[in-house]
Specification:
about 725 residues; alpha+beta
Amino acid sequence: MRKLLFLILATLALALLPVMFLRGDLWISSDFLHQELPFILETKRMLATGAPWWSWNTYLGSDFIGSYSFYTLTSPFVWINCLFPESMLELGLAITLVLKFLCMGWLSWRYLRKMGVSRQNSVFGAYLFSFSSFGIASLYYYHFYEPIIAFLLLLIAVEMLLRHERWGMTCVALASFVVTFVNFYFAIGSFIAVFIYVIFRGFSGEVDFGVKVMLKGLGAVLVGIVMCSFLLLPVYNQMLITTRADAQSAFDTTAMLNLLERLRTMFMPKVVEGTTAFVPAGSASYSNEACIAVFGLSLALIYAWHHRNWLAALLVTFLLLYLTPLNGIFTLFTDPLYTRWAYALALIVVLCSVRQLDEEKDVKRGVWCYAVLASIIVLMFVGNALIGNGLHFPGIRFVALIALFFAGIAALVLWSRGKLSLRFLKVVVLVCVVAQMWLFLLNLRADSIWYDGLKNNVKYGCGDVTCRADFRGGNSFLVYNAGMLRNQASVEGYHSVITAGVDSLFKTVMRDFWANNKLRANVHQDEFDALLSVKTIYDIDSVGNMEKREAEHFIPMGFAYDSYLTRSEFDKLMGDTTINLPLVMLGHVVLEDAEVEKMSDGLTHGDAQATSNLADAVASRQQCVATSFQGNSRGFEAKVTLPATKVIFFSVPYSEGFTASIDGIETPIYKANLCMMAIKAPEGKHSISVSYYPKGLKTGVWLSLLGIVLLVLLLWRDMKNSQPRRFRSR
């Protein structure tokens, strides 16, 4: 174990310190800078409130638990990051990155030892698993490591149950809770992969497996999931209706993958998801491959050729699932093109490989066959890439990846012929891992330059999580979640799990929300900003320099209307691209058909064609606005003085978790302007209080308590088994 931990620390030092020296920092581009860093900052602020219910900084406002349990809220490593001051966030991330690799290495070593692998080769296998291409590529998605670690816990617990070891059911329940808790999306793939694993393991003859054991395992898994109800129930609605989840069916077999590209991901390292595919229109570029530096599938395929056992059959099954659209069954509620379960395949590849090493058989012929097969696939890929690029090499990084592949193949062949010792081959693996990480990190310089500039020009916002007096800001450049860095509500964002219905509002402006879910409006911008009470606009260039200016048309948060349109009338306008829909909504509030009768008192029926001037529409809305508005993590407070009964519009996403009161008396909240909220208030001076509490949280807490009671019963049952049967490997 000490040797393994030393190897992991040495590899991280060799791979990361030179990059930090060359670039001045470590942090990489795109999703990491645009999502991971801002989301961790937002999580730190929200947790400090003690009631992290509503995040004003997420798009136009969003349920915090529903939006961040996928990313940061449920990660123990993020909790560690939250202990660091915001000025030291990068240091905290570096520490937790090392901790994540150490956890992956330690748990994979424990699993390999439990599966009867020798101590020495368990160290090597754990190293290969920790630094597989999937593990390295997950630097780009910092929250991917938690599901990998949780999956290892689940496999170890399942092995305890299958071997009738003491505490087996309790450990399966606890591991199932951890898997579900750290990431509910990944949990689906993890449970399916473990189910397939158990089926093959059960028919191996190595364990006492039957219906009774299966029922025990399923019961323990259900206890773990029930324990997680306090999280699952609040996110249930958002989990099903996010734009990404709704984009494509997980069982869509028409999403045929580029087979050549997906085969390449099994043999070659990659730079980063989305930029790794040199093959034009290679849809499989959205796969996180399972290849392992140098070894790849070589020894695993040789093991499968030599054996007719459960492990060989499981390897072949996982490969077939990985290489075909069937991989979509692992990614329910998300895009089937994403192969986010590749960590399961990588672990089985490692187990086959180190078992082959333990047997010390002659693998010369098998390695030669593998080298020829892999080389043919990579050369086909190179030819396809060159043709698609006009017979020009795409770049030096392309050449480096090809060279890295053939260097690994050459070392593998020399080892199989007795020209290299296994110890020297392991040194070659370390060198290739470091080189692969260099290629990965150095490829991402462009966004890092932007982030460095943004850090110098935008101070991290500190203090309470509140909705400022100017309410929202907007960015003129494509800077994702910069408002979150400022701790200021903004009309731009980049988030996969957003408040339900926001897409309908964006469609009125851009008419194609998914393609632009990370941007503010790119047409009718002034009208859109006025509707959403944008006062401050930040002009940010491509290297992070920033200038601040005031919006020309600003309406304070909480403004009244004099006229209305029904939702059905408005929907008819959406097909006409010549109509400025945000301007129409500034002139007339759009009410749901079923609520017109309740809301229309004091309002006239509007004419969509009558609103043609932005200045006039803004001036009309400015006549009756809230005199004060203050938001926090529990909702918001507003004060209004009305000359008559009015419909007050708040550009806050409508959600069933909100409740409202006027002067302490509960009042209904209505959906208005497609996905926002409105409150009907009588004449006079009033205080409006709107509170948010995640729907399902209270019920989920009670169910979680029930799950804990069931866990105690499992623990009591396991304690009674004072003489557990011991498992002995063949």
